[in-house]
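Hi support team,

I submitted a single chain yesterday and got back a structure, but I'm not sure I'm reading the token output correctly. Could someone confirm the output below corresponds to the sequence I sent? I've pasted both exactly as they appear in my results page.

Thanks,
R.
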Amino acid sequence: MNIILKRSIGITTATLMVLGIFANTASVLAEEYTAQNSLTSLIQVGPGGTSTYVSPEKVVRDTYWADLEEGTIEERIEGLGVPSPATSPLATGSSFGSASGYIYKDVKYYGVFPKYVLRTSESGLKDLNVLNRGFGSDAYLPSTGITDSPLGMQIILKDGFYQFGYLAGPDYLNSEYIGKTSNDPVLDKFNPYGFREADLLSQDEIKDPTKLTVYGDIREKGSTDSNKIGEYRVGDQIKLDFSMDASWFKRYIMGYALSLTRGRYSYTVDRVYKGTLGKFDSQLVYTIDIPEGVDLINPSASISGLNDFNVNTDIKNDSGSKKLVISLKLNYDKANKEELWKDIIERIKKLDTSNIKISISGLYVNSKAQADTNIRLRGTIGGYFEWANTILTGVPSPAGEPTFTGGYTSDTNTEYYRRLSQQKVFERRYLYFVAKQSKFGRDNGAPVDKPNLISYTFKVKKEPNNPTPGRIDGKDRIETAIKISKKNYDKAKTVIVVRHDLFPDSMTASVLAKLKDAPILLNPTAK
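Hi R., thanks for writing in. Yes, this is the structure output for that exact sequence:
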């Protein structure tokens, strides 16, 4: 998988310092994964809490609760002028080029991504040419559920992540907050959306972004007990509810919206609120491994908890095993639709992201399932949510405001800013995730050493033990009745005697025989 994105930047010393793209330009072998050539999905936390970049192969192998695949991103960094300092990533490299004073460099990054999920080069915002960029690192695509490092979700300067919350604190990016304590609320003038504290990330989540985890759970359809082991016989249909809890997600997006008005840009808050344009796109993918003993017959799925998503069901052959793949994709007319950012925020406010559920049918126990054995269904959830908002609306600025509002002066790169003024520039964020098993819904049949595994276990019941009596006959009905009584009774306290030539009498006697636990004997009419 290869993802190619383009990033335009003004090349000045100040710009490089703000974007934090100073990097070690030493030759890096593909086997050496570092902060300079890797996405944060390759970070693993070792003994003592130390964080290390490891190979994509190792991350795929270790992340047993998700289906991941290796991938790379190629980013073209562009700008005007001579790069400074000489050690910047634009200064060297075989792909470094120049035309009429315009320079570029292609940089490749390694990482892992959820299987069956659209990448940045395939999604609804694929035509936007701005890649996520964090302070102090190069390419940055935030993710959750893959790494235990807090770096996975910090999409802005680490010390500035507090801006996603309600409390003001000593906001050094806005002089009006100087002297404020950590218990002071955000000033109303910087909160045009009217967010309350409950609408935003908690202080614990801000201090430790690993708490921003998506959880998944599989249970029997209609059941409230996720832990119990179900019971099915051969031929029975297994109907399931597969749910996802991303309760923090809405608060995260609200916090991002709030951070835009807390000093990150130099234009007025009113212009951010009324003039910023936005776009977004999203996809969720649920999968279930289909083991031997289970068949898929016309599988289908329905969704609850989300609007404007199309549901598509597919059967994949993954390494020789069947896998049910259910993709939920934002409707085409909604993805990449340009609208006011504040309208997008108002719509997201109304979402309940704590219980997004798909109901699945079409799984059946087949004849290969052995009685009195347990069968475990492994599930995964992966997906992305990406959004973009304008950092330049293309509308002439009010008097006294700079044309380009990225915080840089326009006198050093006049041509660069002239180019920017002719287009709407979007800042794009692509956040991807994989889910872990909710600890409260953990399957009783799951392996103890895999606490993050999303699964559902059921037991195959024995067929009922109802032996057939076989054929019993005699030369006539009288002899047949005698043989039946001999086969089923060694002795009896009661015997029912019926005329052999009156069929209604025989039928009526069967009810009495059941009550008395007595055999029926047919007697010749004249004897």
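A quick pointer for reading it: The first helix runs from residue 13 to 19. Let us know if anything else looks off.

Best,
Support desk
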